[in-house]
DNA sequence: CGGCGCAACTTACCCGGTTCAGTGACTTAC
DNA sequence: GTAAGTCACTGAACCGGGTAAGTTGCGCCG
């Protein structure tokens, strides 16, 4: 079954290929009557422009790329990426851009994928996540002149657009809330320490704790996995001077922490209050439901996609703050006994 | 920065475009010395073949499509899809195929996406999930002659390849295990009843229960979300004659069920045993960790991708059983008190 | 030594859109 | 009445790689 081309339409309409192209793209150069006739024929025979041909003649690939640089084990339960992806799609779909996905193991492999995609003109731009300090991907993207949007910051990304949320403000709010409840010994289980937003959070956490006169403040580094979350929680809870509240850098570790507390016979929130970063259905799923720092990840993703499309169009894009974070109190926080 | 083309290579090597094409594709028609020289130049200037040009000249788009037809809320925490995706990628990456993703709301929208992708020659094939009885997508795929692999079955997919796992055997094993522990009142919270694999499981569940002489057997339909899982669990547990064990059709509902039991003051596994379908880190994350029906979803996805690539190559593909399911006992199951 | 066969290329056209430089026909302007 | 301008469209080049058909040059054989 041969799929129709503009030549087929041209033949049936009795005009040239060029006229059909103008008609379909809303360009001037054809009369309104002819345009209608051509559009009707296109509709009738179910015409879709061959994306390859379109991409070849100087135009766009009309696709953007996203790499996921985490082991499949984590990707599965982290709601974050899926939320982000559905946000992208809402925006990309509206502009009939496709999203091309690739799971990679290392930043080096990720760079290779960018090179290949860009070299093959498979994509018009990429969305970069999990940004680190002095990220090796940034100079490569600049050198390739590959349109990109970095999610997470703010950091030094040169000419590349970035979009970030006020993590410092959020963690400050969480600590203030716990202190207002009466907590003095607050600990934190962080994500991967290399990541820029982890550093932002750690800095803000230390600052707000200092300003509120809290001592005994500790941040244990982890890696977003349940295993590490459990391990860190156990370390925090077996000490003699154990914290009465723990803030986790993601929901998965918070749920794991909750399980450890229950396993050790501690009551949540009676003996231990828990705050999760990034609200997700997971937080409401467990008992007690977890107090969380919520933000609309889909909207955040949509905003990122919008910025990327602007960057692809050669528009000036900068440093955008988006995705307001707010505290959603649930059953996992209470005054300490 | 102009990206290099085969014409650039040809100029530098002092040969024609055609020779370069032969050399790069391992075709006969160039001497070994020339081939090496051309490959070296390609390497040096970082050449990647323009995928659009390649796709245009009769070849393949070297991409396959996957649509996700679930609300973002669910997609986020269901490890299933991410596991599947990383499985696809392992296989697709090895053949340098890209994966194009689209989130859709309805099967009708999904069909539209297939039509567009195929019309645009953006993809060479699709992977279809969540198959229903008399699925509306099947006849469309056949009419379009779009290579496809259906995940979940076995069902009536005509000429389209399908890949499925032995769900009936798995649920039989789970029920036998619970009966061996001493349970007589076993309930089940199922996924969306329209889905083919839900029906397979329900049928097998009823059969094994009947054969073991269990009465009081009930399957409550739900939709894989935590909310529905909680609701169904509550309905099961408030009755006078409440079950001592519940089997859930996915991990998310099982975790939600666990939370409901804890909230109602029931001990798991003392008062209630819980079995989750589809093991994932989520099952080991909670307390107690959930006994689960495990299978290697990534491998399952990889197998599906392999079948799809075969279908794209015009090879005969059929009805493949893969992804052996086995029971992984953990802390959520025990003899009833 | 002519002719054959073959390796190692080159030439030229194809894929299906986009785009730009024409080309008539028709209108408007002086 | 004719030059200028506009409109609606045509024809052809182009994007970059794939490939069938044609062209060398060379070795080998009778």
UniProtKB/TrEMBL annotation, chains A, B:
<dbReference type="GO" id="GO:0003700">
    <property type="term" value="F:DNA-binding transcription factor activity"/>
</dbReference>
<dbReference type="InterPro" id="IPR010982">
    <property type="entry name" value="Lambda_DNA-bd_dom_sf"/>
</dbReference>
<dbReference type="Pfam" id="PF13377">
    <property type="entry name" value="Peripla_BP_3"/>
</dbReference>
<dbReference type="GO" id="GO:0000976">
    <property type="term" value="F:transcription cis-regulatory region binding"/>
</dbReference>
<keyword id="KW-0238">DNA-binding</keyword>
<feature type="domain" description="HTH lacI-type">
    <location>
        <begin position="4"/>
        <end position="58"/>
    </location>
</feature>
<dbReference type="InterPro" id="IPR046335">
    <property type="entry name" value="LacI/GalR-like_sensor"/>
</dbReference>
<dbReference type="InterPro" id="IPR000843">
    <property type="entry name" value="HTH_LacI"/>
</dbReference>
<protein>
    <submittedName>
        <fullName>LacI family DNA-binding transcriptional regulator</fullName>
    </submittedName>
</protein>
<keyword id="KW-0805">Transcription regulation</keyword>
<keyword id="KW-0804">Transcription</keyword>
<dbReference type="InterPro" id="IPR028082">
    <property type="entry name" value="Peripla_BP_I"/>
</dbReference>
<dbReference type="Pfam" id="PF00356">
    <property type="entry name" value="LacI"/>
</dbReference>
